[in-house]
Amino acid sequence: MKYIFPILILILLVACEDSPSDPPVTEPATSGILVLNEGLFGQSNSGFTVQNLSNRETTSNPYYAKNGHELGDTGNSMVISGERVYVCVTNSNKVEVVSLANFESLGFINLGENGSPREIAVLNDSIIYVTSLYRNSVMKINTNQKTILKEITVGELPEGIILAEGKLFVANSNFGAGNTLSVIDLTTDSVVDEVFVGFNPRVLMQDNSFVYAVCSGIYDETGRGGLYKINPVSLLVSDSLIINGNPGETAYDGSGFVYIANNGGVHKVGLSDLSENEIGIPLIPGSEINQHYNVIYSLFFDEDDKILYAGNPENFVQNGTVVSFDEAGTRLDEFNCGLNPGTILKFSIN
Asked: Using an 8 Å Cβ cutoff, are 322 and 33 in contact?
């Protein structure tokens, strides 16, 4: 559920249809592009797509093929840690733990009623922190024991979460009305401060010693959002850049630039001095990715191959695609995926 209100409106305008049958699983890839397909709201049909980077073959829904059932209702986000994939299955109120080697389910953590996991920060091999959207909290979880160790109250409707300087930064979106980041001290697992940013902070990322918050703004005609640069030690906002058109999906390139998608397309922003950027004509127009609504559902930048991947949800009720571009915004290729490709990552198995 990347854009909860706008997407629900669009879905109501089109008729739902079933996704086509998935082809059989081929030999597992040792390195590839992993896509988490959100599925359709209320239909419990989230799943994965894998593109093998050695031969560019695509495998559909390896989780279902291995386990005999779907991942759950609304796979919102995922992180890879070692040879595990942690998945926030929002409307199933669980965090699923999956083997990256063969997509076998290693169990799940039940967050309870309204648990609604949104985003994950990994502390170590056994501890993760998860934002719980409708409980207005962050849950500390032992992934080996599949238990919730602590629930920490934060701001309204938290989404993004990131670790920096012994602290957790949590984006309190409040569906557009929020404008703070909660700061959690990891030594006490308690909120110790807050940082004021733009309205609707949703995405958090790091570059060198700074934390950045992408704020999507209110969903009106202007969609005035922005990018905010935060010192994680002093907790001061040191720089900011206004971006209209409800900026959201973000991909860091590893060398001081970030790709940010708004209603117009994908913009490339330099992080060293935000004031030097001009947000005008996008590097990649939204229509180059999604011809239906110009909606870009996910972004990921492969720092090794210098390729930008963008998730195309088509019309939200049919299977999507993932489109790739070089650093200059030139279209390279695309591959088919499942319903609503909401997260894209690269993986490698030793």
From this structure: yes
Residue type, 338: G
C-alpha closest to that of 330 among 277, 274, 288: 288
Tokens of 169: 């930064």
Stated pTM of the model: 0.93
User: 298 and 308 in contact (C-beta within 8 Å)?
Assistant: no
User: What is the tally of structural domains in the chain?
Assistant: 1
Q: Is residue 196 part of a domain?
A: no
C-alpha separations of 248 from 63, 94, 196, 245, 251 in Å: 28, 24, 18, 9, 10
- Give the pairing type, strands 75-81 and 84-89: antiparallel
Sheet of 201-207: strands edge to edge?
Answer: 201-207, 210-215, 225-230, 237-243
Q: Which amino acid is at 319?
A: N
Which structural domain range is residue 340 located in? 1-14+30-38+40-66+265-350
Q: pLDDT tens, 228-285? A: 999 999 999 999 999 999 999 999 999 999 999 999 999 999 999 999 999 999 999 9
Q: Please report whether residue 227 resides in a domain.
A: no
The answer to whether residue 190 is domain-embedded is: no
Positive or negative: CA dihedral 132, 138, 142, 147: negative
At 114, give phi and psi (nearest 5°).
Answer: 60, 25
**Which residues in the chain show pLDDT less than 50?**
5, 9, 11-20, 23-25
Task: Report the alpha-carbon distance of residue 87 to residue 235 in Å, rounded.
Answer: 29
Provide the CB-side half-sphere exposure for 31 (13 A, CA): 8
Kindly state whether residue 182 falls inside one of the protein's structural domains: no
Answer whether 204's CB lies under 8 Å from 172's CB: no
pLDDT at 6: 53
